[in-house]
Design goal:
The chain has 25 helices and 18 strands. By secondary structure, the chain is an alpha+beta fold.
């Protein structure tokens, strides 16, 4: 019997395709669905989720695959399904609405709209039967249908008022200028909220905070404050020891469902692993702790092995479930471990908390509760278990290539290549960058959000431009191939032309984006940096590379508006704090004159890369015809690779010896 197919069958998003055979008459978001709602004067049911979302799968099984529920939806509503990862603009607007209606949000997001897109009722997951204080989804559908038929004016007034509230952005008093006290206030707040026993911030569920850890590392570099690096290290150590880290295959799960990092929500997201790998690279550069390098490289190996697509991009995520069971691929029974490892089992089980009773629902999530050095026996045992695990059913992969998230992994790979001297990482970064430049950027330099099956879809949003530009700048500093610098600058110029808010800061969507009920301008960092914060970071780095004050001015206006929030809520504005720290640091500009692949430049680079230098930019190459202003008029001395250490393009005496360069940097540049 031929399966029912709805309009989602023509999409590329794995999340939308998961629903292509539901009996619900789903539409993707677009003119056809909106026109039908208008013509038939029906309310819209908007369902937003993503492929790796556990409760999205549950609601599909319970409700969207149910014929009776589908009939209610099809008769009374125009049903629209959206992949939040493809359309973060829609997700931001309607998540704001749900949070205003019920005080919280999450996915799946379930929102009811008037035919012109104004939200009037919503929530997240609704069960198939009433339980835990939640009405059943069918009761919700009946109630909304009744209200639409009998209290239409009231519903439309509610939707108009909510849409107006979403459009109105609260005014934030801008800081007149930046001061060191901003960093001090943020650090004190992080100390107050810090979980000294288990690392991290907050209780259950506990999320990795890579941007916050990055800020703590930067504070230590800037001020020498030992409190900041102690909090960072405690958190890095705890995450790497916990069940949230995949001790066999590398990489991190999305978050821990508890406060001690043991039980993960098993989905693995590209953006988490990109940011965490990068911060472990930086932690290694700062401390030279071998474990940090191991975690960084294992996380990048995971991404290269399990997320890299055939074309060289990186897929969005791995599902939390395997064949409908959460975490089934990853957990163990002691008997399995005994059988696979034989005489080596006892040492491994003691190290990784494998017991008869398990530590999660009678089974074991591997963790490393007691520290200690790794050894060959443990490494061999991990390999054996990993090989056995690979024979199990594996979680589904959402293999769309998202521009913003690939920008993050390009940055992580580039920083790892520079720090560890591993060209493999820069090759992978190049492949992803070239894929995006060739397939998601058009002739006018505008980006698309998503690429899959040879199709580039959806208008790029601010984070696509900003994250990709950041990754390209990191790739330039790893390879000194100037076309990456040029591309990063071109993307930034598009931001300034199409995303800038005349009042300061940046909108999430361009001035020629699809008209929605509001133009979102999200300033808070979430699991990924806010587009505005990453834009500010990129602008400040470009100012250091080019000497152009307009970049710094645009960044400063954006930063000024969030300073009061960043001081009070540092974990929600950590990328802004990283930009603020860079701005306050009076960054060092380092120009290396000579052929980038030459041995004498390599000797100078080894001085620069042996430690973490977050408040510097590095350019290398020869002056004639360069696209990087920092390299202009920087001749070689005596035909040798020559280093220029500068601030505001005013340079100290050029040096050719690595020891001389180290001396200049040690004395503050």
């Amino acid at each position: 019997m031929e399966r029912h197919t709805n309009r989602l069958a023509g999409e590329t998003s794995p999340y939308l395709l998961q629903h292509a055979h539901n009996p619900v008459d789903w539409y993707p978001w677009g003119p056809e669905a909106l026109a039908r709602a208008h013509d038939e004067n029906k309310p819209i049911f908007l369902s937003i989720g993503y492929a790796a979302c556990h409760w999205c799968h549950v609601m599909e099984r319970e409700s969207f695959e149910n014929e009776d529920t589908a009939r209610l939806l099809n008769d009374g509503f125009v049903a629209i399904k959206v992949d939040r990862e493809e359309r973060p603009d829609l997700d931001a607007i309607y998540m704001d609405a749900v949070q205003q209606m019920i005080g919280s949000g999450g996915w799946p997001m379930s929102v009811f709209l008037t035919p012109d897109g104004k939200p009037f009722y919503g929530g997240t997951y609704f069960p198939d039967t009433s339980r835990h204080g939640l009405p059943s989804f069918r009761d919700v559908l009946d109630g909304v249908s009744l209200a639409w038929r009998e209290r239409r004016d009231e519903v439309e007034q509610s939707g108009a008022a909510l849409a107006s509230a979403i459009s109105a952005r609260s005014a934030i008093e801008a800081a007149s200028h930046l001061e060191e006290t901003i960093l001090d206030a943020a650090l004190l707040e992080l100390e107050r909220e810090f979980d000294a026993r288990h690392g991290g911030w907050g209780g259950a569920p506990k999320f990795p905070q890579p941007m916050t850890i990055e800020f703590l590392l930067r504070v230590h570099v800037k001020t020498g404050d030992e409190r900041s690096v102690a909090m960072a290290r405690r958190t890095l150590d705890a995450m790497a020891a916990g069940g949230i880290y995949d001790h066999l295959g590398g990489g991190f799960a999305r978050y821990a469902t508890d406060a001690v990092w043991l039980v993960p929500h098993f989905e693995k997201m590209l953006y988490d692993n990109a940011q965490l790998a990068r911060v472990y690279v930086h932690a290694w550069q700062l401390t030279h702790e071998p474990r940090y390098r191991q975690v960084a490289e294992e996380t990048l190996e995971f991404a290269a092995r399990e997320l890299r697509t055939a074309e060289g991009g990186f897929a969005a995520s791995l599902d939390a479930d395997t064949e409908g069971q959460e975490g089934a691929t990853y957990v163990w029974d002691k008997a399995e471990v005994d059988s696979l490892l034989g005489s080596a089992a006892a040492e491994f089980e003691a190290a990784y908390d494998v017991t008869d009773n398990g530590n999660w629902d009678g089974r074991t999530i591997l963790r490393r509760p007691i520290g200690g050095a790794d050894n060959d026996a443990l490494a061999s045992a991990r390999r054996k278990l990993f090989e056995a695990r690979q024979l199990r059913p594996q979680p589904a992969r959402d293999d769309k290539v998202l521009t913003a998230w690939n920008g993050l992994i390009i940055g992580a790979l580039a920083d790892a290549a520079a720090a560890f001297g591993e060209r493999r990482w820069s090759r992978l970064a190049r492949d992803a960058a070239e894929l995006l430049l060739a397939n998601v950027r058009d002739n006018e330099g505008r980006l698309r959000r998503s690429w899959k099956d040879g199709r580039a879809l959806h208008q790029g949003v601010l984070e696509d431009y900003a994250n990709f530009a950041d990754g390209l700048l990191a790739l330039y500093e790893a390879t000194f191939e100037e076309h990456y610098f040029v591309a990063a600058r071109e993307l930034t110029e598009v931001i300034l032309e199409h995303f800038a808010d005349p009042a300061g800061g940046f909108f999430d969507t361009g001035d020629d984006h699809e008209a929605l009920i509001a133009r979102p301008k999200s300033v808070q960092d979430n699991a990924v940096p806010s587009g505005g914060a990453m834009t500010a970071s990129v602008l400040l780095r470009l100012a250091a590379f080019t000497g152009e004050s307009r970049y710094e001015d645009a960044a400063s206006r954006a930063i000024a508006s969030v300073v009061p929030l960043a001081q009070r809520y540092p974990t929600g504005f950590a990328q802004w704090l990283n930009a603020i720290a860079f701005s306050l640091s009076d960054p060092i500009e380092i120009a290396l004159s000579g052929e980038p692949d030459a041995a004498d430049i390599g000797a100078l680079l080894s001085v620069l890369r042996r430690t973490y230098r977050p408040f510097s930019v590095v350019a290398a190459g020869t002056s004639p015809g360069t696209s990087v202003a920092l390299l202009e008029d920087r001749p070689q001395r005596d035909g040798r690779a020559t280093a220029y250490v500068c601030r505001h393009f005013a340079c100290r005496a050029p040096v050719v010896e690595p020891a001389e360069l180290a001396s200049q940097l040690a004395s503050g540049g």
